[in-house]
Amino acid sequence: MACRIVLAWNKRNAGMYSVDLGAAAFAGALGEEAFFYSTYPASSVTAGDPRFQLRDIARLAVECRDADRLIYWGDFTTSPQYGLENLADKFSKSPRGRALFFLPQRLRARIAFRMWRRYFSEIRPRRTFSLCQNFQTLAAAPDRAWPGGFDPAAHLLGFERICARDSESCAAVRAASAGRARVSSGMDAAFLATAPRRTAACGRLAKVGLMLFRSNLQNVPRLHAMLEARGAGWDDMTAGWLGLEARGVERSFADLIARLTACDVVISDTYHFIINAVRSHVPVIGIGGVSHCQDRPVADFKKAILFRDLGIADHYLITESREFDDRLLAHVAASLERIPTEQDEAFHRAVDARVRRFKDELLEIVA
Predict the structure, then answer these.
(1) Is the dihedral angle over the CA atoms 268, 273, 274, 276 positive or is it negative?
(2) Which of 88, 76, 147, 114 lies closest to 296 in space, CA to CA?
């Protein structure tokens, strides 16, 4: 029987597109017919990529009546906190939900949460999975009073298996379900996408890729000057990352990744750009502000957890000032010096092996 896969889907965001490419690769490895659904409730959604002919999520309940398996894939969509605080904005930008935009924020949030429950918590065919999702926001508000008598533990127990994308999400699910949910720690879905390898020679640091927009970092020209003083060129890829061409998404994403793989190292405050670099064997330096929990999807905490889970926590640099001051520039320089030995080919082969084990685990869980 066909497998139903619900994607967060953001056709302009290269990071979310790489998550969906992971879904396509996984469905291909599963060797079965798969139908993809978009979180956006629209009458028709086209991807601009022949691998995705997306269906309207409003059809999901009816089409799951005879479905064997339902997979919620990537992002935060099965975290109740996402449904309560983040989905209203996403729904209000879609054709069917645009009327929500004009409602008071509290009412809009309540309506969106009911829609989230309908699509992400109440549809339960024989086997339902949450794979590669982030649940860190659950831990940010453990004592929240949920509307309408919603029970997060019952929601989490409704999944046959949760394979969270990081260790912190796994811990959050265990805490919210009092240890009863079947959960394990995995990796982000973008790691599962087919990845081109770095074209630059190993060990040199002549060209640096930059993606700096998520953490609102100031004085970026000082970083440019430091790199130039070291004899390194730089390529700022920020403009294209959130602006994939709607009718040529496959090509425009490939062009971005070609630029990334031509770099010797990347410096970034953007979660999925970092993952795409790692999966292409490009060394990474991450930067973010002080953040003690993931209170919203774009907060910096998840980046610190990513670097910790990859075993390269020393290459994630935290700045209190959120600017390239002398202290942060010194940390960047020190990280650049260590990269040839700490993110060498042995490191990347170890990540590749972990990705293969994770993929095999998911196939075993679902199949």
Answers:
(1) negative
(2) 76
